[in-house]
Each structure stands twice: as C-alpha cells, then as structure tokens.
Amino acid sequence: MERMGAGARGGGGLSWSPLALLRDAVLSQKAREKELRSLVSNLPFEGLGKSKQPNRFFKPNAIKTNKYTPLFFIPMNLYEQFHRLANVYFVGLAILNFIPVVNAFQPEVALIPICVIMFLTALKDGWEDFRRYQSDKKLNNMPCLIYTKHYIERRWKDVRVGDFVKVVCNETVPADLLLLHTSDPNNVCHIETSNLDGETNLKQRNNDVFEPESFNCTVVCEKPNNNLNHFKCFVEKPDKEKTGAGIESLLLRGCTVRNTEHAIGFVVYAGHETKSMLNNNGPRYKRSKLERRLNVDVFFCVLLLFIMCLIGSLGHYLWLKNLSDVPSFLVSDSKGHLDSPSLSSFYMFFTMIILLQILIPISLYVSVELVKIGQIFFILTDVDLYDEETDSQVQCRSLNITEDLGQIEYIFSDKTGTLTENKMVFRRCSIMGKDYPHKENGKDLSHFIHTFKNAVTQFQKVILYYRNSNRVICCCLRKLSPLVVIAFLHHQETQVIPDEKLLQQISRSERSSSGISDPYMDFFLALAICNSVVVSMATTQRQRVIHLHTPIRLTTLWRAFLPKQNGSSTSAHKRSDDANGVQPRALDTVTLSARPAAASGDVCYEAESPDEAALVYAAKTYGFTLLARTPNSVTVRVPSGEELVFEVLDTLAFDSNRKRMSVLVRHPITGEYVLYTKGADYAIMELLGTPYAGDGQQKKIAADTQYHLDCYAKDGLRTLSEQHISFIWAYGREELMMASAVQLETELTLLGATGIEDRLQESVPDTITALREAGIKVWVLTGDKPETALNIGYACRLMEEGDLVTCVSILDCTLEEVRRYHEDPRNVDTTQKISLMIDGDTLAIALSPDLQDRFLDLAKRCRSVLCCRVTPLQKSRVVKLVRDKLKVMTLAVGDGANDVNMIQVADVGIGISGQEGMQAVMASDFAITRFKHLKKLLLVHGHWCHTRLANMIIYFFYKNAAYVNLLFWYQFYCGFSGTAMIDYWLMIFFNLFFTSTPPIMFGIMDKDVSAEMLMGVPELYRTGQGSGEYNFRTFWISMLDAFYQSLVCFFVPYLAYQGSDVDIFTFGTPLNTSSLFIILLHLGIEIKSWTVVHWIIMLGSVALYFIVTLAYSAICVTCNPPSNPYWILQNQMADPMFYLICIISTVVALLPRYTFYVLKNSIAPSPLIQAKHLDRMEPSVRDMWMKEWRSLRGGTEVKESRLSTPPSPTLETSVDFYPGFGDAASFVGEDMSLNVIGD
What is the set of active-site residues? Predict the structure, then answer.
C-alpha cells in the first residue's frame, strides 16, 4: 500500500506569526468548549492548507501521556519535587547555610544530601516517563486505513476528526468512530470492549448505511465526555433531514472489531478527546493509615528539633553572658565590633537547625517507596496467588497501601461472582405452576474429575508435537489432563440434561392444534428472545479457548467417563431427542485446539451475564435455538426445525431500579405484538394481570409458582420469572415505541420461573472461617432475596446453625436483646455468636441519620452481617458508615460493576476478575482471581507488609535521633557554638551510604513468622489491627532509647579522653565508629529472621565504613581547614583505647534493650514469639500444635480484643455456655424487618 506522511495531508499556507498562533488557540478553545460540535468530511478539503481545514480546531489523534521533554525535564521535575514540603524544607536549610552568620557546614557540603535524594527521585521519574513515551510512540505509530479517494495505510497519529477510517476484523479502533458501513448485510458490527471495561462479551453496533464517497452530510455531536455508555449525535443531510444516532452507533477507541470483516466509520473524537482517554485518569492515590501516622511523627520530630535548637540558642546566650572577657576565637567584624549575646543566640538558633537537621529523616520517604516496591514484588511472585485456569496472577494497582492489608478489621463482600463461581447451571424450572426439577443436571463432578485424572495417568503414551522444528515432549499427566478437565467443566456450564417429563410436554404442545401459542412454547421462546445475547459462529469464540499446537481428539475416552443417567433416562432422553427434534447434548467429541470443533452451522453465545447464557442454552436444549440477532430482528429455530424471525419493535433494557428486562416483538405467525418480560420474582409478580387476583386457575398458578420460587431460593438458586403479554390492538410501530415501560409492563401473563445454580467458589468456607479467627468481621452485601442469601450464608460459614429471630419493633428491641446477651456474666469472655440479616428496605431506614448509631451499635455486637436486596448505592453507604463512624480499617471485595462504588469507598478495594467483566478490577487497589486468595493476601502478605514497614519506620526515626543527639550533647562542651566533632563528609556518608541499605533490606525481607504459621494460626493477624506495631507508644519508646544510647555513645569516649589533649576529630572518630556499631547491632536485635542477604548487607556496611573512612583520612589533607581528618582513623586503629571504647559503648548502649527482650520473651512471650518457637519444630509436630492452638477457639471463644493463649499439654478447653439466647421470640411489626441469627 501507498504510505503518505502527515505533512502531505495538511498542505501549506500556515501562518506561524505569534498573532496568528494566538488567534488559532483562542478559536480552538472556543470550538472545543461548545456544547454541540458540527463536523464535516475532510475529503473536499484534502490538500488545502491547515487554515482552510474545517475541523482544524479539534485535537489530533496523537496522544502524549509523558509529562517531560528533554529540554524542560530538569525545571519541570524540580517543580514537581518541590511540591513535597520535605524537599522545600531541606533545600531551604541548604540555602540558609550559605549565610555566613548562621552556617554550620561548608555551604557546598550541605547541599549534597538533598541533591542526592532529588537526583535519585529524578532518575526514577525520568525512567517512568521514558517508558510512557515509548508506549505512546508505539501506539501513535500503529497502522490504520484512512480514505483519500482510496484506502491508504497511515498511522494512528495521522487520523483527524472528519476522516473516514476502515477497521478490519480483529483490529483495534484508532479513534471514536461514528459507524457508517459494515460488511454485514444488516450493517451490524460486533465489537469487544475488554480494553475499556474488561468485558469480553461481544456488543453490537449499527447505523444507517453511508458511503464515504457520497457522504456530504454534517455530523452534529455533543462535546467529549467520559461516559462510555452515552452518546448524543445526529447526521444532517443536505436536504435538512436528520438521522439520530446514539451509543449503539459509536465505535470507541481501543475496542476490537470481531466477527465482522470490516467496518467504516467517521471520526468524531480523536486523541485525548476520545472517551477511552477521558477515562484514563492514571493510577489512583490513596494514603495508607501508616503513612498518615508517619506524617504526625514527622511533625513531632520538627517540634523536638525546635526545642533542641531553642536550648542551643539559649545555652549560647548564657555562655556568652558568663564570659569575663572576649576570647580570641570570637572574631569581630571589620569595624571591630562583636554581635551582642542576644543577636548571636538568634543566629545560633538557625545554625543549630542546620546542624541538627537530620533529625528529620530526609531519606525516609524514598526508603519507604523502595520497600513498598520490594513488597509488591514478593506479592506478585507468590505462586499461591496464581490461578492456573485463567492464567492470571494477583495485581497491585495501588502501590502505596500494601501495609493496610495487615490492619483490616471489616470486610464487605459481594456474593455473586465473589463468593460464588458466577458460572450458572440451569437446575430447575416451573412452567404454568408445575415444577420440573432436572435432577440429573449440574451434579457434583468431583468424582468424575478424580476418576478421569487417574485414567489419564495410566496412559504410558507421550504426546509429541513440534514447534519451529524443535521437538518438545509433553507428558499426559502434567499437560493433557488439566486442559481436558477445564474443557469438560466449560461444557458442563452450557450443558443441560433435559427433564424427561418436560420433553414429553413440549412434544405434546408441538403436536397440538394451538401450536406455537402454547404457554410451554412461549416459555422457551421467552428464554431465547428476552436477552441481550450475541450470536456468533463457534469458530470465532474467544473465551476459554485451549491453545495447543496440534489438535488432540479424545472420543472413546470421553464417552467412557461421561456421567451416566440412572435407569432408563438415557434411552428415554435419546428417544425424546429423536422424536421431537431436540438436538442431543452429549459430549461425543472434544477437540482441544486454537479453534474448537463444531458442527457445521453451530453457534456459540456471547452473553453479558452468565445467567443469561444459561437460560439461552437451556432453551437450546429443548430445541428453541437462538440463531441470529440483529437490531431489528431475532431468529429462533423451534423443535420442528422451522426458523421463526421475530421483528423487534423495542427493547426495555435491564436496570438496577426496574430489576427486569422486556422485549417487544411481532410474532411471525400470528402477527400479534408480544411483550416478553423476565426479571427478579418480586419485580415481576406485582405486574400480573387482574385474573391473578381472583380465585380461579390463574391465581393457583401464581401461588404454585411462588411456592416453587421460595423452594428454589431455599436451595440457594438464583430465581427469575418469565411473563408475556400479547397486543392485538391496531397500534402502529411508532405508537408502541412511544409507550413507556410502565405502561407496557402491566397486565402480564405468568409463564413460569427458573432456578439457576451458582456454586460456591473453592475454599470459601475455610477462608471466611480463617478471616473471622483473625479478628475480621465479615459482612456480605448482596442483591439476592433473603432465602437465597441466607442459604449461601450458611453454606459459606458466614453464619452458624442456630435459630432465626425476626425483630421488627424498630432497632431498640433487637438491640436490647443483644445487650442482655452480652451483659450476662456467662457470656463475658465469649465471642458474639449472633449474626444479623437485614433487607434493603429495612437498611434504607436504618441508614437514616437518626438510626445510624443504633444500627451500628447492633451490628458491631454481631459476629457477621448479611444484607440482602441491597442496591449498589446502599453498599457504598454501608461501607462509608462503618468506616467513618467506627474508625476502623475496611476492605471491600467484589467482581462486578455494581461493586465499584463500594470498592472505591473502602480503605482497601479488591476486585475479582470473574465473569462480569473487569470494572471492579479497574476500580480496585488489588485484583485477585479467587476469593480464597484473600486469605493469604491478608493473613500472610498483609501481616508481613505492615510489620516490616512499621518496624523499619520506627528504626529510621531511632537511627536519626540517636546520631543527631551526639552532636547535640557536644554543644554543651563547645559553648553551643554549632561545632561538630565529626567531619562533615563522614556525617553525610553515614546516613547516605553506611546506614541506609540495612533498614531497607529489613523492611523488604524480614519475616517474623513463616507463611505456614500465619496461615495455620489466623489469630496472629490480630497483632496488626488497630494501632498495630507502629503507634504512639512504640515511637516514643524508640526515641527515648535513642536518647539513652546517644548519651552512652557520647559520654563513654568523653570520660575515656577526659583530661587528655586529643584533638576534636580524634575524639569524634571512636564516637562515630561506636554509633555505627550500636545502630547496626540495634537493627540486628530487631531482625526476626537472618538470611544470607542480611549478613552481606550488615557486614558490607561495616566494611564500607572502614574502607571509605580510611581512604578519606589518607587523601584528605586540607579538606576541612583549620582541622583536618588526615590519618586520624589509621592512628586510632593502632590505639587499643579505640577498640575498648567501641566495645564498652556498644555493650552498655544495647544492654537494656537486649535484656528487656530476653525477659519479655522468656516470662511473657507474645503470640508471635510463641509462633516463632513452633516454627522451629519439625513440620509434623508443628502442624499438630497449630491444630491444637486453633481447636481452642472451637471450645473457648475469646473476645476479639484478646489473643487466645497458645496450647500447652495440660491446658483445658471447657467453658460454660449460655444457651438461652437461641430461643428468643419472634416479633412482628410494620416498620422494619431485622433478622437475627443466634446460637
């Protein structure tokens, strides 16, 4: 193809005068701010100058997400960095050091620390920005086809508003395009929006047909916005005729064209004005609880620094006032005058700030970022958080709240797709009041999978296949069997084993005179028609495709291990299929290849939700096969083989308020207008016609159907009702389209109901049990009906077996019962064995301002809470209420778009990449694939991240305080003159190099307890809840310890050299060396698990100190006149006094801390210390003790504020139990409905 540059399109004639540029900028801004935009084709203006282009005011398609350019990187990055107050503070001190009357160091030397920190930060920012630049460059240079008399291959950056762009199958849309023409006869284009919202199901787009050559219309559209589901536009023809278009006619940038040979569109938005770019807000920033605590302690350090500087200033004033004469070292100015003591003390205040500035840890923030990166690396590389079936791992989308994972106190979880698989299996249905149980459908497959795997392992054959002429051996056991099992499980989700009686009923209905108008036929027509399922050929199916290089057919093997039906059901099934035209659903052949095998003309379905797909596959099982769907028609093949084309007049889409969906069609046989409606049972039953209110047969059908629905709900099935209404009136199409949803969805005829099973995910009960043992309260917020939610609550162990107490006398009644239970002396040391269940209507009342406090008082006394029939807004309100009122750390986990608000409101949001798209993942801080992964993410990684970072921050404050206090104590012996007894360069190296790496490795790699122990004893997680490891007490204890150690480190050398004539650096060198040993050995006491890396870093820091100091002392002759450190350390190392001082100072300084730890861990060891002792045992013995430790919680439930005592061989576990509360009475009222589970 011909390639053309962007310059060939714009032509010449562009004025570059400043006035013209300013005018164009103003006009462009005005054009972009208009509520409506008028766009025309660029074809008539091709080759003209830019000033004559009609769409020149709108942004080009090239994108730029990087912030910097090579020319302006330094000033822009400095501007960004100076937004941090800490950087402004240290730069200000460095500048202050250039003032002669207040300087404490050489001015140039004072700039080194902040320059190093800002340089490292600039390198990090530059590298990240360079990666964004490379990504932009790759995207801007992607090829696309643009029409200029014929289609020419150009780059995405060349696309302009007003161009015609052609996108072929499996290509990505380069800009927001108004669809004009497709290769499909119905002008339908299928797109996949997974790059935007994560949904992998196909969506249809359509519009009136236009050809680029004859397109002389004006496109009027709204100004750009970030709403992916809304678009307003109309096309005005030369004769002023207007054709409307909406979101169904817009191809969004980033979408992929599927199942369509090609599509042609008109560019309406380009570049940064496209909806996808307007939704690209970059990473979300959250401040962790530990970071907020860190800022408070930095303020305390500033206050402490102010006090120390004030003491220094006051001391300098008193020292000058007490001088009898002027000493020779006080130099006067050129006029021979000396500053007054008060003025000198004022100057000395600023000098002391410069001298003691490292009390504020300048490198702490950079170190915290490095530690978090290391922690995220360990989370991402944890194989236990990897899901083999989806080939995905945990995602860390928010990089700065990893430590919050270790402090969670409340978890709010969705049910469908979060606790359950969201892989729907059609289990039961009720038609015209008669139940059809489908007993053989959806049986447990665990026995089959186990048997099949064992059978595969018996094959001794090795499968060989070739890749690039290189032979690769693939073992049957390790490669083949998992793929086959996954394929079989996917087949089970779509497979429905028909009910024999229902098959016979459909056969009779088909042979009857009423034919297609029979209610049984209408029921399955409703299943096939009333949905948004997109039909595609099997060869284009993209989800769950197993990729092998050579197809492997397994025919005989599958037949041998398929689950058999009892009795004669198999033969009856076959006879029914043959007699009624129902296609058999047995899995005779499975093909594992890049393209799944399918019979000629077979179809597959792309559904927006798994339950829609389950209903369509159920209809297909009984012979009602959805063959095609266009914007104006639906084609269904009925059991007789006849294909019926229903004209679609209107579709009333499902929404969270109506809780139902309706499709208005014209029946191809009768010509009647029929409205098929499906939805939640409570939303459908109220729409029944007048006959259902009487005493006839229809009322009995409704009552029987409701009874079946209640039974389905008690079995934990998802329920839907199916209804229809026929319009025989002579309404035209326009009148029907104008009728509102409320007017249409009335006086409906009940057809039946369905029950769909949504199985629990693997290990959900164990995970919830472990989380509760960890002191975390679990709330489940779901939109399901109470019976279904309650069943799932028991199944996942959210609730224990007990009596259900219904209290509807406002909150006071239930709250009083719960209070009496807890005030009973026999329940003082027991955990709450009460669970609360509340529906959406009651919750709406409980969330009112005057009832919030009483609702929370009740909820916090319950072990778990189950909220059913709640809306997405209520979910977020509940999370916000608990977070703000109780001041606790909250975590929300969900998998769908209805969970986004809840995820964003919580302190930590976790999305599950399930069957409902990726909206929850895109809004989350962390993303996992299974609910069970939450256990290790919190109990192990959350605990480690919090304890590591908390201890590292405390150590950083201690380290800086201990070192800076050495300078402070020296001021008492130098007249508070701001003099330092350590060389300035060595002081800088001490914090930047000698003691910087060990705490970072401590924060990344320290491990107080093994992962096995943390998983085996979830109770250990409670140590991080509340204030956790890093709190007011631990901070000030460390600061007091720093003051003590600095006193020892200073006065041991001082007393040793007292009365001698050593110079200032000879005194400061052993003091500096002692402080290094004390600070590093202090860290050694804090390290819980030593590794080779720890040893290398610690010994390397000591070696680096001596190497650098020896080299510096050897080469620095006149570095710091008048005193110089030349050969100081060499002389010191030849003096035994040096070694004696270092040993005594180190031992005396660390002895109190070491003694305290020894006594504490021996007399009253914490649960973590005891768990560490168990870690050292043999695995079998350790597992036995862990089981006994956990068993204590089964017999002796302890308060959540305590940790249970670890097991001992003689420990008894009996405890009195109060049984009376479980028999509480039920109350009846009209205002509220609170359901309480009590043991």
Answer: 414
